[in-house]
Design goal:
Length: 417
């Protein structure tokens, strides 16, 4: 059994992190096409999956599952969210806007209550009597007419700047959603469809709100399980918790034995203190002995859960994960939607893909390997396997490497697809 005195290698820490994130086995070793139960269990093991609207390839929430499961039927995932007979997931707020198992719904309630109180006490918009009436009217409209989306609320005022294009009725819906009075019952072309909570939430879901302390401890434990291994304060990063606010909880949970301190020899050669969940100590020793070996090669969404611990990409992989979609094009280093490339236990580079849905071509606008990465035979074969799975998931007929700098790589990979 591991102890705080033993010093583990950085390689062992990386493998434990990947194991916790279900990124160990080669995709071709996963039997069959995953169905609803496997998809649900994956989301449950991860705790939540971040939602994002960027759509140059499949949206991030679908990519996170693909990286772990290979090609699967997106309709099965959607059914878990939006089919009333199969609903086991919902849209809430945890790390950010996320898909979350309904069995964790109660842990959203402290935030709903505190946000409601804060809006009542501090919102200038809500202080306006006309806006208070608008909130009531929006709720009553949905109560009477059933589930509605944004286009069902007419707005003739000026267009706002920004991608959300807020208008008064949208503000009212977002308030009601934040308070838990409305939930997302469906999405049509990614546009939210709102309905009353009592018509969306299944009867079996527990709705007794925990205290904020109970919520925080639950999320911290979930975060450490999902990270596998992290610095103590990084446990807060898996949810939207502020590190300084939960520092005491982390110390208490360590003193109680829920978290165990371990030493890891980091990149500068000095042992640093990390924490693991008490149930992961035996697994860490197995990893350290070489009983568990990483074999996955895949592409990761910029919003992937593996990357949520701030600073761990540099500590563990000497890698900087950076979303560049919102940077001006001339200032981007790696591209609009650059996806980190995982090869076994290393992050070896990035690729910037775009799916041309009309032509069926998967365009690789840039493929960037880290310094010192050589294109040996196993890496080329592994990348080809990952591309085949990525193509299948996107129903792509062809891969095109657009940059002349990537021609050599393309010449080695394309014949193997």
């Amino acid at each position: 059994m591991g102890t705080a005195e033993k010093v583990y290698s950085l390689a062992a820490a990386r493998v434990l992190a990947l194991h916790a994130q279900k990124l160990i086995e080669p995709i071709q070793q996963i039997p069959g096409k995953p169905g609803e139960e496997v998809i649900y269990q994956t989301v449950k093991d991860l705790g939540c999956i971040q939602i994002d609207s960027l759509h140059v390839v499949e949206r991030s929430q679908y990519l996170v599952l693909w990286s772990r499961l290979g090609s699967y039927d997106k309709a099965d995932f959607d059914d878990l969210l939006y089919n009333p007979d199969k609903r086991r997931l919902f849209e809430g707020w945890q790390h950010a806007a996320c898909f979350i198992p309904l069995e964790d719904f109660r842990y959203q309630m402290p935030r709903m209550n505190s946000v409601h109180q804060k809006h009542i006490e501090q919102s200038k918009w809500l202080a306006e009597p006309d806006n208070q009436e608008l909130v009531r009217s929006v709720y009553e409209r949905i109560k009477k007419d059933g589930a509605l989306r944004a286009r069902d609320f007419e707005y003739d005022g000026p267009k706002r700047s920004g991608w959300w294009d807020w208008n008064p009725a949208k503000t009212a819906r977002e308030y009601l959603n934040a308070w838990g009075d409305l939930m997302i019952t469906a999405r049509v072309n990614f546009q939210r469809v709102y309905d009353l909570r009592e018509r969306v939430l299944p009867d079996w879901v527990e709705v007794e709100a925990p205290s904020e302390e109970q919520r925080d401890r639950y999320w911290l434990e979930q975060g450490v399980r999902a990270f596998g291994i992290c610095q103590p304060l990084q446990a807060a990063d898996y949810s939207y918790l502020r590190r300084n606010f939960v520092r005491g909880h982390i110390a208490d949970m360590t003193a109680e034995g829920i978290f165990k301190e371990v030493k890891v020899k980091t990149g500068d050669g000095s042992p640093q203190t990390f924490i693991v969940h008490k149930e992961a100590l035996e697994l860490l020793d197995q990893v350290d002995k070489g009983d568990i070996r990483p074999g996955r090669t895949t592409f990761l969404s910029p919003f992937d859960n593996l990357l949520w611990a701030r600073g761990r990409d540099g500590e563990f992989w000497n890698f900087r994960a950076l979303l560049e979609a919102y940077k001006p094009a001339p200032t981007r280093e790696w591209g609009y939607f650059n996806m980190p490339i995982l090869y076994h236990d290393e992050l070896i580079g990035r690729m910037d893909p775009k799916m041309d849905r009309k032509s069926g071509k998967l365009l690789i606008r840039g493929f960037f390997l880290e310094d010192g990465i050589e294109l040996h035979e196993d890496l080329i074969n592994s990348l080809a396997d990952a591309f085949r799975s990525f193509m299948d998931f996107h129903r792509a007929d062809e891969v095109v490497f657009e940059r002349k700098e990537d021609a050599q790589l393309g010449a080695k990979i394309l014949p193997r697809l």
